[in-house]
Write a structure and sequence with these properties.
heterodimer, A: 585 residues, alpha+beta, seven-stranded antiparallel sheet, three-stranded mixed sheet, 21 helices, B: 329 residues, six-stranded antiparallel sheet, 13 helices, 6 strands, 11% strand
Chain lengths: 585, 329
């Protein structure tokens, strides 16, 4: 076999071993993340890649060392002269693998990490939604269960079984609504007696009943009995006709009076809604009430120009201070970032820590889920601790809105349609403007710091350059971002340093055995990958510490040139070392 | 292969240079000045080890110099123990737990969020291992208990745990940058092992001899016997590195195996306490073996390698092979 063939054979065997280890690692990852069945396949497809590429440079180095130190000897290469020209195809192969390695760490790696993170997030959302749906269904809260199951469907996609479950819940929810309506009807006093059994009644009886109904103010009943009596009588019953006419007059009069009362009521309700809207400029809760009143008015008088105008105005003002729950629920199915924590340095005498379970950027806006805010006084300052929690939040301008409302509701008891923060400690204070918290970080910064240090591997090189400033603003430790940037550059250029130096070192200190070394010596060969891995890890850390010592701010402006310069010098040394190797059988 | 014999010390130089650089930088750039006395002993150790191996290299080149070379080993290892002892004396009382000192370095920036995959921690103030005003975020927890604030917490650096009153123990090693720069496990273990190694040697100054020996030896000799014994055994174990260096006719593998041997040597004080060894070996062994388990393990390693050295080809043949290689290359 040619030297090139031997090198690539050793490389293939090493890659296969690495692949096995990567799959083993992926198994652990799958077990740890536990993606839902729908995502398990795609998670598997991606999960082995990070481990594989993390160790690819080691595998190439081990291949180079073993091949050029043990497998190939000068006679295999033929002739004499420099080593490099004789192994041109091997070097080209190393360059190609190095290119793939560089593309991974510079481009594909972060997006794969991001995909894996998103799968984990969406699995969590789906799993939680499914669990909540089951819980709500067991509690016979079918509407809530239906909403959760629809959220689950929007994450995992549709299936026959799921559609059947949703249909079943829709039926159950509809039945529950009907039951509730009937229950409310049966609880009302019986306003209309069952008065229309006319069979067997004589005309005088009918007239008598008509008269009674008229005197009771039951004009429709009176009119009905009187009409039946007039029809059944063999002669013209003036009394029946008179009751019929009086009842008709009373009905028409009643309609007119009701219309007048309705218009008066409409006017009063419009005035009340308008006043609430005006008050809403300083009191967002009043604005919420105004919204529900105008929604009610729009049902009653859809063509009323006042209602149309002020309803629209109310909605616009409402969108500036709150948001609809259904928007947040719908957006939750979209890919997002998890585990966000940042300091919001807006208060002079207090610290404000914002913790968010997940963040999603959707067409309808930026939504926050499982929000908690903790405020405590700075050293020397007075004041208590405030700890609040709310399931949904939305960024509106530079504010984080913590109050969400149901899109549909009624003008009465509006509090039941509003989700306000729950105060676990302390009370609402004047630091929030009607449950609006001014945010000092913009959305871009929040997405950059999402997940903290463990999520830095999801950031592209460009994002990593911006990350230190965002982390500093968020009150997180900055150093890891600088380290990650150094690590990325070291991984990209270091691959070539390692590969070239491994060939050089392996060849220079190659085995002097003629043929295969004794078995005890071969049994020690696994020490080689360990030593390379150990040395490489040590060198990476030392480089990181060295560079962060010179550029402690972790800023990209200082870090990138420094680390690039160091690595290029190392590359130059490695290439020079390789170029000096000769073939002398 | 003109410099074949210089390869082992050269490799060791690179390795120890990296450790030295890292340790010194940690001390100088690190967040706590108190890290300096902790870092210096291993720096001293690796530097001296380098001198030992270099000395041995010279001894091999000139076989008659073997005796002075071994004396050099003894002196330098003695210097390590004296240096470590002096440094620890200057530093104040020493904790009883071996591993405590190894992990005792670094500090925490106040009001900084330290993120792990499960926990995030914010500390307002730190006085040694006592932390005050600690906020712990547990992302895996149920919503009702996700964020908690504790007026005080204890940082058990030996086990890498943040002990919270009425709360979960938070593994601080998983919080990147908490107390010290995040290091890969392989590097962290290596540095910890070096510190534990030095600590163990230094502890020989304070360890009492077995009663029977104390009765036999005069007081001064009894005081010096333990450090002397330790110095002797460690010197022997370090000197035995020359066996793997000429283990085969494959120079690269020899050096790698030598480095692996030194790594193992440094890890012995930790390995001696691993639970499975405790249950498999030490439980059945007599008490004097158990008490001096580390010393005995070092001695065993040295003896095995010295016996192996006898089985290896003679020095003349080996030097001839190396000479052949030098000519060949």
């Amino acid at each position: 076999m040619s030297p090139r063939g031997r090198f690539f054979t050793v490389f293939a065997v090493s890659v296969l071993v690495l692949l096995g280890l990567a799959i083993l690692d992926a198994t652990h990852r799958v077990a740890a993340v536990a993606p839902i069945d729908q995502f398990r396949g795609s998670f598997w497809l991606l999960a082995w890649l990070p481990f594989f590429f993390d160790h690819l440079s080691i595998v190439v180095a081990v291949t180079a060392v073993v091949t050029f130190s043990l497998v190939i000897d000068p006679y295999d290469l033929g002739g004499t002269g420099r080593l490099m020209p004789a192994i041109r195809s091997v070097l080209i192969g190393i360059l190609i693998v190095g290119l793939v390695n560089g593309l991974w760490f510079g481009l594909f790696g972060p997006s794969v990490h991001m995909r894996l993170d998103r799968i984990a997030y969406r699995s969590d959302v789906a799993r939680s939604a499914r669990e909540r749906a089951d819980t709500y269904e067991a509690q016979a809260r079918y509407e809530a269960a239906l909403a959760e199951l629809r959220l689950y469907r929007s994450v995992v996609g549709t299936s026959t079984e799921l559609e059947r479950s949703i249909e079943r819940l829709e039926i159950a929810a509809g039945q529950a609504r009907r039951d509730a309506r009937e229950a409310s009807l049966t609880s009302l006093p019986e306003r209309v007696p069952r008065a229309f059994e006319v069979e067997g009644l004589s005309v005088p009886d009918l007239v008598s009943r008509a008269r009674d109904a008229l005197s009771d103010g039951q004009f429709y009943t009176a009119h009905y009995y009187a009409s039946v009596a007039a029809r059944q009588s063999t002669f013209r019953r003036e009394d029946a006709l008179q009751i019929q006419a009086e009842a008709l007059n009373a009905i028409e009069d009643g309609i007119r009076r009701r219309q007048e009362a309705g218009q008066q009521s409409l006017f009063q309700d419009k005035l009340a809604a308008y006043q609430l809207m005006q008050r809403g400029e300083s009191d967002p809760r009043a604005l919420v009430e105004a919204y529900y009143r105008f929604e009610d008015l729009a049902n009653r008088a859809p063509d009323d120009p006042d209602v149309i105008r002020y309803r629209r105005l109310t909605q616009e003002r409402l969108k500036a201070v709150t948001f609809f729950v259904d928007e947040a629920v719908q957006a939750q199915a979209l890919p997002g970032r998890r585990n966000v924590a940042f300091f919001n340095p807006r208060l002079a005498d207090r610290r404000e820590l914002v913790i968010v379970g997940s963040v999603v950027t959707a067409p309808a806006g930026d939504f926050f889920y499982d929000v908690e805010i903790l405020r405590w006084p700075k050293q020397g300052a007075e004041g208590g601790v405030t700890h609040l929690r709310v399931p949904y939040g939305k960024r509106i301008g530079d504010m984080l809105a913590l109050r969400s409302i149901q899109r549909s509701g009624g003008p009465e008891h509006t509090e039941q349609y509003v989700i306000d923060p729950e105060y676990l400690e302390g009370q609402p204070d004047d630091t929030t403007l009607g449950e609006l918290v001014p945010l000092q970080l913009d959305m871009d910064e929040i997405m950059l710091v999402a997940g903290g240090v463990p999520a830095l591997n999801t950031l592209s090189l460009v994002d990593l350059v911006r990350a230190p400033a965002a982390l500093a603003n968020a009150g997180e430790s900055v150093a890891p971002a600088g380290s990650e940037l150094i690590e990325r550059i070291v991984r990209i250029i270091g691959y070539f340093v390692l590969a070239f130096y491994a060939i050089s070192l392996g060849w220079r200190y190659r085995s002097l055995y003629l043929g295969r070394p004794p078995l005890p010596i071969l049994l020690l060969v696994p020490v080689l990958p360990w030593a390379i891995w150990w040395t490489v890890s040590l060198v990476r850390v030392v480089l990181d510490v060295l560079i962060r010592t010179v550029a402690p701010s972790g800023s990209a402006g200082a870090t990138i040139p420094l680390v690039s310069a160091v690595m290029l010098i190392a590359l130059l040394v490695a290439i020079t070392s390789l170029a000096r190797q000769t073939i002398e059988p | 292969m003109k410099h074949a014999l210089l390869l082992p010390p050269l490799i060791l130089l690179v390795m120890t240079g990296l450790v030295v650089a890292f340790g010194t930088l940690l001390a100088v750039v690190g967040v706590s000045v108190s890290a300096l006395p902790t870092v210096l002993p291993p720096v001293l150790l690796v530097s001296v080890s380098l001198a030992v191996v270099t000395g041995l290299n010279r001894a091999i080149r000139r076989p008659l110099a073997a005796v002075p070379a071994f004396l050099l080993v003894l002196v330098t290892v003695a210097l390590v123990t004296v240096g470590a002892h002096l440094l620890y004396t200057l530093r104040g009382p020493v904790d009883s737990a071996v591993v405590t000192r190894a992990a005792e370095r670094g500090s925490i920036l106040p009001h900084t969020i330290y993120h792990g995959s499960r926990f995030a921690v914010v500390v307002a103030d730190q006085t040694g291992a006592d932390l005050s005003d600690v906020v712990v975020i547990d992302y895996w927890s149920t919503a009702s208990a996700r964020v908690n604030r504790y007026p005080a917490a204890y940082w058990n650096r030996a086990d890498g745990l943040l002990i919270l009153p009425d709360g979960p123990d938070v593994p601080t090693d998983r919080l990147t940058g908490f107390g010290r720069p995040e290091l890969p496990a392989v590097v962290r273990n290596s540095i910890d092992d070096v510190l534990i190694f030095v600590d163990h040697i230094e502890r020989s100054w304070r360890a009492a001899l077995p009663p029977r020996l104390q009765e036999v030896l005069p007081s001064v000799a009894a005081a010096a016997a333990r450090p002397a014994l330790t110095v002797l055994v460690v010197a022997l174990a370090i000197a035995a590195v020359w066996t793997p260096v000429r283990f085969s006719r494959w120079p690269l593998l020899n050096v790698v195996v030598a480095v692996a041997y030194l790594r193992l040597l440094v890890a012995v004080p930790r390995i001696a306490w691993v639970p499975w060894l405790e249950s498999a070996v030490w439980r059945r062994a007599p008490s004097w073996v158990v008490d001096d388990r580390v010393l005995l393990m070092w001695a065993a390693m040295a003896i095995v390698l010295l016996i192996a050295a006898v089985a290896l080809p003679s020095l003349t043949r080996w030097r001839h092979a190396m000479h052949y290689q030098e000519n060949a290359t």
